[in-house]
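Hi, here's the filled form for the chain we discussed.

Project: internal
Contact: R.S.
Residues: 131
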Amino acid sequence: MGLFDNATHVLAEQALDATWYKQQVIRNNIANCDTPDFKAKTVEFGLILKEKCKCRYHDGISEDSLHPENETPPKLSVVTTYETNTNQILDGNNVDMEKEQTALADAQYQYSALTDYLNNNYAMIRTAISR
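And the returned structure, exactly as it came back:
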């Protein structure tokens, strides 16, 4: 098992990719807010992540994380669907700018948090190697 093959690291990388993709979809929605008959898309991966992990938690620590050598890295899949929770305007477009801007800010925050998490892991490894 390599240094970066543990399930937590692999899952964080996959979540980073999924969050980047989510930002791209939201930006595409915003760019097409005036396009007639454009249907907004949404990206979901958080709920799928919960289904994939099926972890039992005790005091905030996953039992699976206590035995990483027995753990196979989970695969995170991303689902893109058309938005159905917003009203269409007369030209058939259903992009809600306030919702999209809020979703973009949320996705950027998630991306930043995941980047910080991975950077902190790399910093700990650099510290351990330099000693």
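Let me know if anything looks off before we file it.
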